[in-house]
Amino acid sequence: MALRFFNTYSRELEEFEPRDPAARPILIYTCGPTVYSRAHIGNFRAYVFEDLLQRHLELRGYNVHRVMNITDVDDKTIRGAREAKVPLAKFTEQFKQAFFEDAETLRIKRADEFPAATDQRYIDRMIEMIGALIAPGLAYQAEDKSVYFRINKFPDYGKLAHFDLTQLQSTGRVKHDEYDKEHIGDFALWKAWDEEDGDVKWDSPWGPGRPGWHIECSAMATALLGDQIDIHCGGVDNIFPHHEAEIAQSEGVTGKKFVRYWLHCAHLLVNGQKMAKSLGNFYTVPDVIAKGYTGRELRYALLRVHYRVPLNFTWEGMNEARESLGRIDEWLARLREIAQEENVQRSTPNAQRPIEGSDFENALDDDLNISAALGFLFERINETNRAMDENKLDATTAAAWMNWWERINHVLRVEPDEPGVRVLVAQTGELKLTGTLVAEKIPAEVARLAKERAQARLAKDFRKSDELRNKLNALGWEVRDTKDGQTLTRRAGG
Ligand SMILES: [Zn+2]
Q: Ligand 1 center to residue 238 CA distance, Å?
């Protein structure tokens, strides 16, 4: 299947055709964090989706160049710095660092560039663009000295959001800060300095002030990627007015189509509700880690639902993510053991070889259908586990499956940081060292429970056996029953 994406602009699934097939790399712009507080897991859902997009494009042979901006000046950052009584740059720096830490925890590939809005290079570009919009009448300076975009002069305004301009007509009295605008929908390109801004100001032909949020992205995107880019991403809440404004500004200046494909990630809910500090359901990445989960577990939990479907975050969902990764870890540990064996006779060697061009990759071609892709992955895991149970998978085939996994893992990035430790507990309760096992890594408590479980199974006390399995799971060990006894695989960290 050809690669296709759902384009917010057309509201249709479209086959992916880069600007110019010969032009490499693929240019992607992603709206980054506004660094006024630590980003929450809903923000990171969008960044994980963008990571999946980039990695899948790379798997399909595209070279990707991605820019993610840092919004380090806007109303919220200025207010935060004022309340904390520190300079703006000092205030935002801590949240920039926190963002990079959290992105690393979630194994998100770094963008090629992280431009910051306060960089003088981009401030100059913003001023240049605003001047270019004023010249043909697409923007005007109002009595309050701020400069606004004149949306009535840009006929395509509203096309991305599929928004009717007449809905923006004011009814009754307009708000104070909109007093000087010609149209209620006109948005600020340059905000004239006022007392609340303190020392946050830059000189411009329209007097001292600061840029509006929307022009920041237009300026950084066009400065670093040129007039036309392939893919622009963000969360659905960025569609209007932010991305609508980016189109108006960029196309107003260049006269060229700014973005070929607009991809937007749906919201994250917590227990079915919008995340809010007041509801006590507001989580950052460190909040989730503090509950005992790992970065890769959270990555998987954020990744496993299709990006256009709202994701309901729950602790049960985190446990499911942990279980799924435990299955992958155990499967990998088994494959690794067999791949390392030499001269072991199998009943039917070479069963279950992996197939090139897997269903997993084809599913991702279809607008990043991750749920289908993961469904295929676990089908393959079940099949190969069965073949291993029946002693039908030889070393060469196991190695081929591990290579097959490498491609999938390039996209998922959920492999364990260290190989899972495995131990075989014979039916008599005797512990046997297998494969990558390091004897001293088996805690005494785990050994005791495993032996007790072996005895319970010999006595056919399956209720007790299940209870003991749950206890072992809780201690971080996956349990599998085989004809030789039970194998335990320690869940990997990371
Ligand atoms: Zn943006």
A: 7
